[in-house]
Amino acid sequence: MSIPKSYTMKYIISLLFLILSFLGNAQQVVEYKNQTRSNFDWENLKALKFLDFSDWKHDQDKKEITPDWETVLRDRKNKEVGGRLLQCVGNCKVDRGDSYFVPEFRSSLMEGDEIQTLDHSYAWVFFLDGTMMRLAPNSSVTLNEFNIGLEENFISVRINAGNVFWTSRTEKFFREQNFKDTDLIFHPMEFYEAQEVQDNKIYDESDLMELVEEKETYIYQINRLNKLITENNSMVKNKKTYAFISSPAITLMGYNPQIEMVALIGGKTFVKKKTGEQLNIEEFTSEELNYQLRGYENKTIEKLEEDVWFEVDEKGKTINPYQDSHHLLTGEFITKRIHNILVARELLLKNYSPFVFQTEFDRFKLAKDEGYRLWGKMNSDDPNENDLKRRVEFLKEFSRRVETSNLLTAERFKDKLSVRGESLKAMEYGTYFYIEALEKYLKFSEYKELTTDGVLLNSTTKTLWKKMHGIK
Q1: pLDDT per position as a tens digit, 96-140
Q2: Does 128 share its domain with 14?
Q3: Sign of the C-alpha dihedral, residues 68, 150, 81, 162?
């Protein structure tokens, strides 16, 4: 492309100023993994605009106001990996930008991704801090942020719709119970290393008491889980995670929450804070969990009681104990014992998350080697290190206002439909959230190695066959 001669000298001068500005602003800049050294979008760059002196001067004025403009720009462009998919049963998809993909075991989930389960589909998601999230059918969750802080980590998600179980990692141990897991819709697990080892003890047929004794397969798995927790505790060092979980009608916030939520599009929202007894955890003390409802002027933040199902109305204005919660308890039963899933969590934590729990951080090294921005602290008044605290305060106000606007817009849309004699059917809670998982639990029985005339079939000795049938 040729440049008019009358503008040649002007462009040369602009280019010289541009080079001088680079030299004058030389400073140590945070560069993230997989980011290019240059911030320019060279593929879509327009030459005349790029060399325009007035545009350059305008940009320089803005940069002088913000000396660390390049670091800020790189922060905003950087998308961090928040977790990975553990397993999907059925049809799941992840919306990322203008496209979507079908996730597989260990697929990376980045900030801004929306994870969806379709009809008859279930998913478990692992976050890098050890938090696990389960999506029932017809559920949708957007991963807004995953931040690594000096003293705590931070996760922000939006539960758009559906039934979601959220369990934060705890350093406490699980009680020994010789009962099978309840969430067997994920059996056999794609993460074969996390699968339980079958009790192949040879029983003495002459001893009637031995014949009626139960196998200890499930106790072995819980003991294995507790051992892995012990090993990983030395890495985690009790570093907590502050979770900011928003939905159309209510926002939950607090350290290491253990909750289940049902958010029905156009309908009510149900939420329950779990106890250590329900989670089968020994000596468990839950952290305080707060909630905030909707309304432009409503800045009230209240504490959520545990072990009670609460009902939030469609407008996000009121919250009350839900008296008719028996049908929710059936769906809640599915996640009563999830020791196989938790073993998988500990194995993934050991493999993917050591950098999240460092005791000393170098923000430049963390950015360059891992691709993450280092945040400050939640409990600090020092303006140089309390950016995480300020971020949460901003999200409280921002989330409440945006969700309130969304609910008002939806209400006006319903009114318009009503005037036309039409109606918008709200999402309702039903057995479709758990029926396949419940049937799998009720019908489940351990696979046996098949024999013909007392001879072990060769196919049953192959690793592939064992993986297909969940035998380890």
Answers
A1: 988 999 999 999 999 999 999 999 999 999 999 999 999 999 999
A2: no
A3: negative
More confident residue, 164 or 461: 164
Domain residues for the domain of 25 are 5-75
Backbone angles phi, psi at 221, to 5 degrees: -70, -40
Specify the pLDDT at position 24.
45
- 143 assigned to some structural domain: yes
Burial of 281 (0-12, 13-18, 19+ CB in 10 A): buried
**Is 222 found in the same domain as 136?**
yes
- Looking at 14, 45, 75, the residue that finishes a domain is 75
pLDDT, tens only, 48-75: 666 666 776 766 666 666 666 666 667 6
**Per-residue model confidence as pLDDT tens digits over 296-306:** 999 999 999 99
Alpha carbon 164 to its chain's center:
11
Asked whether residue 118 falls in the same domain as residue 71, the answer is no
Name the 3-class secondary structure at 317.
coil
Q: CATH number for the domain including 114?
A: 2.60.120.1440
For residue 52, the tally of other CB atoms under 10 A from its CB is: 16
Q: Which residues contact 57 (CB under 8 A, 6 or more apart)?
A: none
Pairing of strands 152-167, 122-127: unpaired
DSSP notation for 357-387: G-SS--HHHIIIII--PEE--SS---TTT-H
Alpha carbon dihedral 433, 436, 442, 445, in 10-degree steps, equals -140
CA–CA dist 464, 466 (Å, integer)? 5
Number of domains in the chain: 2
Residue reference for tokens 């196998």: 215
